[in-house]
């Protein structure tokens, strides 16, 4: 993508109506994919998904044994609405509203759709179902919403701590699946744990908002790069003067820490300013200090101050 097209796309993304359209599209697509995965893979193979959807499936199975049937689509709504109300003040109201829309649409598609099964083999259902189910969650997260339930809790904690807790979500799902195994058999519970592992790994592979990377930029145009970078992004930069071992000429080393989802656009921006710049990307395990993390649907910043915690020089 050349710089003019990229600038046009970035400028378009600053419009609220564009971001709302993208979110709405992601919500509908995610809901349809989730309903598809639940019907074609989860229900057909006798699996249990995680989170509040898994809880709704478990209640569906248990109440069916007792004669009082609470269907999965109804349980999804019953369990999600109270959590949404609880998180209303801690996550943006727009985010909660779109997430609730995803839950209601998933329930609606699950109620009216009759997708045919694709595989008779349980392992194939686990592999493909786990990927599609995880992808449905990753899509709606990248579009600025969620599938509700544990997603609300995970994002609320992540917004406060800056850390991903999907591993803890997976552990909680394992507890739920253990109960499922005691009631309905350990074989399907074991397959369900594998299903959850695949879906969790799929989310982690496609959704990187709370991961951080360190950029080390070697350049001869430090002021131009810093001006372009800080006019668009919130993060500060450290600038160190150095000496090129090969060229024997003066160079500057810029260091900044950014969110992983910003990485590609920042690298493109810096390379546009200095096509000869050498950029090294390092994974940041832990960051101490002030780090700006914008709202989920926030447009690219233009005139906001940089992180004071990142400015060392």
In terms of topology, how is this protein built?
Layout (H helix, E strand, L loop, with lengths): L2 H11 L2 H30 L5 H16 L5 H16 L5 H20 L9 H21 L7 H12 L4 H19 L1 H21 L5 E8 L2 H9 L7 E6 L6 E10 L3 H11 L4 E7 L29
Antiparallel strand pairs: 1-3, 1-4, 2-3
Helix pairs in contact: 2-5, 2-6, 3-4, 3-8, 4-5, 6-9, 8-9, 10-11
Structure, explained:
59% of the residues lie in helices and 10% in strands. The protein is an alpha+beta fold. It has two domains: 3-206, no CATH class; 212-310, Alpha-Beta Plaits, CATH 3.30.70.120. The protein has a four-stranded antiparallel β-sheet, with no helix packed on it. Strand 2 and strand 3 form a beta hairpin. The radius of gyration is 23 Å and the shape is elongated. Mean pLDDT is 80; it is low at 299-313.
Offer a few descriptive terms.
single chain, alpha+beta, 2 domains, elongated, disordered C terminus
Order of helices and strands: HHHHHHHHHEHEEHE
What summary fits the major beta sheet?
4 strands, antiparallel
Number of strands: 4
Mean pLDDT: 80
The fraction of residues assigned to DSSP E strands is 5-15%
- Helix content, binned percent: 55-70%
What is the count of distinct domains? 2
Low-confidence runs: 299-313
From the N-terminal CA to the C-terminal CA, the straight-line distance is 34 Å
With helices defined by DSSP (H or I, 4 residues minimum), what is the helix count?
A: 11
Strand order of the largest sheet: 2-3-1-4
Alpha carbon gyration radius:
23 Å
